[in-house]
Amino acid sequence: MQRESQISNEYWQAIVENDSSYDDSFFYGVKTTGIFCRPSCKSKVPNRENVRVFKNARLALSANFRPCKRCKPDGLHLPDEDWVQQITEWIEQNYQKRINLDILADNAHGSPYHLQRLFKRVQGISPLEYIQKVRMKQASRLLVTTKKTVAEVGLAVGMPNAAYFVTLFKEKMNFTPTEYRKRFQKGEGVNE
After folding, report:
1. For the whole model, what pTM was predicted?
2. Residues of the signal sequence (predicted)?
3. Using an 8 Å Cβ cutoff, are 60 and 24 in contact?
């Protein structure tokens, strides 16, 4: 088997072309997502330097890679609750980036429709509502613990449109960001 950093051109082509004739030859894991797939998987092509090749699914699992929900390598699949937990963890680590359902689904190796439906069933709210919840929690913390302007706080939590940030914050938190800051900062030290 190829070393991690030296994936053969043959295997790389199989991944890029989603070549199902290689499905019994190897599996590949993507270090940035922690997911492993069959060569025929229709997920987004990873960066070559992030690919690790495995002879079988057992080796990928023992290296702490999770099976892809899209291609179900070697007949394996992740329980729905675990998959949704991975998605929520990814959101919590990446809330400051641009995120939409397609980006989430691509990252989680699933379809947007399936992700939306399953996430709502497991979490009780949609992925978009969860993203907003995480962003509002982080914005609340920044408003109370920093001297960042409202626009800077919005930008820091992945909401570059200040007007939309203020509107959503008021809708979710029942205060404007400025009111929230004044009300909840009460005598606490503010630092950057």
Report:
1. 0.62
2. none
3. no
Q: Tell me how far the alpha carbon of residue 43 is from its chain's centroid.
A: 14
Domains of the chain, start order: 9-75 (3.40.10.10), 80-128 (1.10.10.60), 132-185 (1.10.10.60)
Q: Which residues does 65 contact at the CB level (< 8 Å), separation at least 6?
A: 29, 34, 35, 36, 52, 54
More confident residue, 9 or 1: 9
User: 4-30: b or e for each residue (b if 16 or more CB lie within 10 Å)?
Assistant: eeebeeebbebbeebbeebbeebbbbb
CA separation for the pair 113, 143 (Å, rounded): 35
Q: Looking at 37, 41, 68, 71, which residue is catalytic?
A: 37
Provide the 10 A C-beta neighbour count for residue 134.
20
H or E stretch at 21 = none
Residue 79: exposed, middle, or buried by beta-carbon count in 10 A (0-12, 13-18, 19+)?
exposed
166: helix, coil or strand? helix
Neighbouring CB atoms inside 10 A of 186's CB total: 7
Residue 41 annotated to the active site = no
**pLDDT tens digits for range 135-156:** 999 999 999 999 999 999 999 9
- Please list, in sequence order, all residues whose beta carbon lies within 8 angstroms of the beta carbon of residue 181, skipping any fewer than 6 positions away: 143, 144
